Structure formats: structure tokens, C-alpha cells
Automatic annotation (TrEMBL):
Residues covered by region (Disordered): 146-168
Protein known as: glutamine--tRNA ligase
Family: Belongs to the class-I aminoacyl-tRNA synthetase family.
NCBIfam families (alphabetical): glnS
Amino acid sequence: QARSALGSALDKATGTLLYNAAARLRDPKHLGFLVGYIARRQILTDLQLSAALEYLRSHPLEPLDTADFERACGVGVCVTPEQIEEAVEAVIGEHRAELLAERYHFNMGLLMGEARSRLRWADGKTIKNEVDLQVLHLLGPKTEADLEKKPKAAKARPAPAEKQKSAVVENGEVGTETRSLLEQLRGEALKFHKPGENYKTEGYVVTPNTMALLKQHLAITGGQVRTRFPPEPNGILHIGHAKAINFNFGYAKANGGVCFLRYDDTNPEKEEEKYFTGIREMVEWLGYQPYAVTHASDYFDQLYSWALELIRRGQAYVCHQKVEEIKGHNPPPSPWRDRPVEESLLLFEDMRKGKFGEGEATLRMKLVMEDGKMDPVAYRVKFTPHHRTGDKWCIYPTYDYTHCLCDSIEHITHSLCTKEFQARRSSYFWLCNALDVYCPVQWEYGRLNLLYTVVSKRKIIRLVETGAVRDWDDPRLFTLTALRRRGFPPEAINNFCARVGVTVAQATMEPHLLEACAREVLNEQAPRAMAVLEPLKVTITNFPAPKALEVLVPNFPADESRGFHKVPFKSTIYIEETDFREEADKSYKRLAPGQLVGLRHAGYVIAVQNVIKDTSGRVIELEVTCTKSDASEKPKAFIHWVSEPVVCEVRLYERLFLHKNPEDPSEVPGGFLSDLNPDSLRVVHNAMVDHSVLTAQPFDKFQFERLGYFSVDPDSEEGKIFFNRTVTLKEDPGKA
């Protein structure tokens, strides 16, 4: 195209501009228009080209206003050497004092930037030459001092940011959550379009009605960011959903917008009320409050009207191919694709009236998707009552038909979904445009997966049915209800999602990274208590008081201002079996004959006097003497203990599966059920815990000193407390 105007001899500068135009122009219909300006040498610089590309992106509809385009990209603007000289002189005058003080150590880029801002279309090289010339005139040639490197100023260390608690987010109001978390959650979202500028997104389809529809959309939303979290209410949310919740709610929050919780309740066969309540409960548990809770079924009447309109426009038809015929790759085309519009309207009405059985008729849309799938189904027959609409409908819309139209009705600005929905992006845009309704933008991001687990509903149901786990909330699973039951704080899950980031690439993470996030949060949140899992009775033969003493134990030893709790200290205490050895080697520092040990918080040191064994030779009791710590030699170690304890059940969890990818046949040929870890649960029936836990409620969390973080299980009842170990105090190197 350029050669037709310039001949065969193209100079390098023009060639570079042509290359950049072809590489960066998203809409090829404007290529000839742009090439004409380059060939006629009306666009001469990369700066002008960038302005031209931005103008074309912002004005997608024909015809273009040529005069406005030329103004926007400086066509015909001539910047004279005198103008450049005056602009540089003015800028140097403003910084004269600093220049004389700092000389050539001054940031000359600042001068060039300010001069460029005054003369937008001036040539950058000419400005630089003028700056160099005028600076030389002012300062003279460089001296030896000017050539020395400027010493780097020591960076002041910022004071540690005060840790802020996560707060509930209502209607997009920013609570007390740290801004840095929100910034991390944005990830790829930094490239997102602004509300109302959908047409600037690559691949977005612009129709003659697009700009008018966007104008109406902005009038309704006021330019507000709107997202939605659209789960199907046929299962429990898992760790992957936590990323989706954080991204949708977090992106809206970071931009002063709102997020809808919309149930995609278009498949009544699999939906149960417990899933609706469970989903909302988990969203709120993670700290988010939906702007509105909606259902796809709220819009069934509108969706049906639009289906009729789609048929009238010749974009949909009633088909009688069986499900198995249209499954898989390259299914045969429908023989009913070109049936008359009136015939499809009558047949669709018959579908609604229940005149067709299930699988005998579907409504299909006339389009080909990215993955080659042809004519996706919009409606199918299901004689199943709906939990909200009852028996009103016996036809239900599919995801491909429902999702984009519900987004349109709610005026969603950013329809955020995982990467597997990328193949449906074209159908998303096509359907909105086929009906001439507002078309949001679909953005895809990578799924979050964890190793050593399964999250599919079907496989979790198999685990429950075979007795491998108790239910969806078994603490060995990675559903959100299971993580809550195990004791993971919601802040830890949110922090984990923030660390993973919102990237286009799929992220597969090790569970220990989530556990590390839990330790960080629990270290700040979980008060300390003392517990003994394998008790060994210890009798203090010279106990210094006739009755129990009271020992003050700090709830948080690193910050005693957060309070204390009292524990009794009597002549009979219990310690861990592993904290005593009859024969100690050099590396062993705890209790042994001839080796003292301190009792944490008690202020006493004990020494073994007598070891009592049962008939099998097992140690069942120790008789010891005690000495006040300040009157004794310093012990090598301090151990935890309990006295007058509360007997509890403690459940210790390990990974449910032995291999990283239990669903991978190459790693586990026998299938995921053959990969179960026989030691994934160990129950300690008679653990002993100090009295501070007596009033604990389900989901209360504690750090059992030297043992780990534990959470009260909902199985707990009056007189019997059950604890789940959330994580150990330190990461097991073997699991990293």
C-alpha cells in the first residue's frame, strides 16, 4: 500500500512506522487509512503513530472524523527550532538554581520531559540536543567532580506497617483490609478496560448499536465497576473458588465498585437448598458482602422472550438431534438448521408446553465457537420442578445462553471467569450482539489448583460414599467448609490467593504454601494454651503448698498486654511421654534421670527421683522433686505440662493422598481411590488440655504450645471438646 504512493524506495523510518502500525493495530479495517497517512508522510513519528492508534481504538465506528483524527495525532503541526529553543530555555530557567547546585548530577531527563510536555509533537532528538546545548552554555564543560558517580542516598527503611484486620466489605466500600492485598489481587486486571470503554478490549465486537448501548449502560451504572461471582448451586465451594471470590469481589472493591452473588440455577436436577446457603455463607466467611444476591431464575421470563426474538431474527432453531449425536468433535450438522422461523417458533412453544419429552428437542443457536463446537444448545427440556419457580417451566436455559445475558441484565462491566471459558468468549459476544443488548467484556484468568487433593464434585462424592472421608467438610479436603472446620482463618485463604496472584496462566500450588499463610495469621490470632497428647503422670513429692497454686500464662507471650489466663499447678501434673527418657544422649535436652527440666510459666524446675513402670516395663509415672527456678541451676529446656486438665479428643490430620497428582493415571494408575493415605487421620481420644479452653466455642482457635495450631470442632458438646489440628508450628521439611 505504501509503495503505491511512494514507489519502491521506502526509507527506514517509514518502514519502521509501517511495521509498528501493522503489529499494533487491532482492527485491520483501519489499516489502509493509517498506511495512507504514513505513506503521505503526515504521520512521521512513533509518538504520532501511538496517538493515531489510540484514536482509532477509542473511535471504533465509521465514518471517522478526519479533521478530529488529524488534530488528535498532530498531523500538519510544525514545531520550529525557535519554539524548541524557547521551551527548553523556559524549563532550564525554572530549574536554574538546582542545576547550578547539582551541575551534571542533575536529572536531565526531567528537563526533556517538561519540554516535551510543552511541545507535544516536537522531535525528541531535537529537544535532547537543545537541552544538551543550553546546559553546556549554563554550566560549561564537565569537571572531574562532575564525572564522579553521585553517591547513592541511603534508603530510609519504612516503619513496619501496622497489621490491619480484614473487615467485611459492603457494597464495594473499602474496609480495613490493606491496600497492598487489593493491588496484588488486581494482577492481570491492571490491563482491564474502564467502564464504558468495552470497545477498547481486543476481540470485542463493535456493532452500529454498540456506542449507544454503552452510553445507556453508563447512564445506569454511573461508570461504576460491576463484577459478579456466579457459582452453580450443586456443590460446595473449594479452594479454587476462593480465588474467584477474591478476584471478583476484590477487583470491584479495589475500584470502588460492587459485586453481585448470582446463583446459576439453570439445572434443577442437581440443585439443593444446602448449596445455596453454603455458598453465601462461605462468601461472607471470606469477608465479603454481596451488593445483591440474584439468581439466573430471576430472569427466566426475559430469557424466554429473548429466545423467541433470537428465533425471529433467524439466529436460532429447534433441533431434534439426540444429545449423543451432537457430543464430541465434528458432530454431523443438524438437518433442521434451516427450518423456517415460524416452524421453530411453534415448536419452541410446544417445548415450553411440555409436548416434547426430555432429549426430543432443543433450541440451538446458529454460531461456531472457538473450539469448533457448532450451534450450542440454548434450551433443553427437563421435567424437574425448580426450587424457586416450581412447575412453571419444563424448559431450562443452558450456561452458554444464560450467562452473558444475565451479565447484560445486571450491567456487569467485567465478566471474570477461568481460562476454560475462553472457548465461549465468541458466543458470549455473539449472543449479546445478535439481540442488540449491552455486551459486557469477558476476561479469563488461570485456575488455582492444589497438589495432593481432588476438588471435583463427582470425586468428592465418591470419597464420601466409600467412607474415605466423612462429608464435604471433612478437614482433609480442600473445600472451603473443610478448611474452615480444620481451623484455617479466612484471612489466611485470602492472603494465599493474593500471593498466588491473578494471572492468565494456571497455578498449581503446594498445600504447604497455604499452611504457611495459616501460620502467619494464627500466630497473631490464636491464644496460647498448654495441651498434652500422650500424657505421662508426674507426681511432685515436695510440692511447696498444701493446695493448688495458680499460674498466670500469657495469651500471647510476645505481647503480654493482650492478657493472661490462669491454670492450676498441683502436686500431680502431666507431661508428654516424649519429654522423658530413661537414657539421654548428648543431643537430648529434656527430662531424664540426672537431667533437670523447667516447667513453662510455672517458675519451677523438676528433677527425677523415681521411675514407676507397669508389668510390661512401660513407664507409667515419674516421682520428681521441684525447685524454684531462681534457686536452681539453669535447665537445658522448658517443657509444657497440664494439671487438673480437661480431657479432650484431638484429631491429627495429614495429606489425604500419597501422590501429588492423584487424578493423573501416569502417576496413580489405579485411580485416585487407590492413592489414599492410610495415616491421613490419627485420633487421640484422651488428650489433656488446660482449663483455659473450657468455654471455647466451635471454630475457636488456639496454639497448643510446642504442638501446633488447633481449632474447636463443631462435633464438640457439653462435657467433651473435640479439637482439629490445623497446622503444626513449623513446616515439615519432608512436605516442602
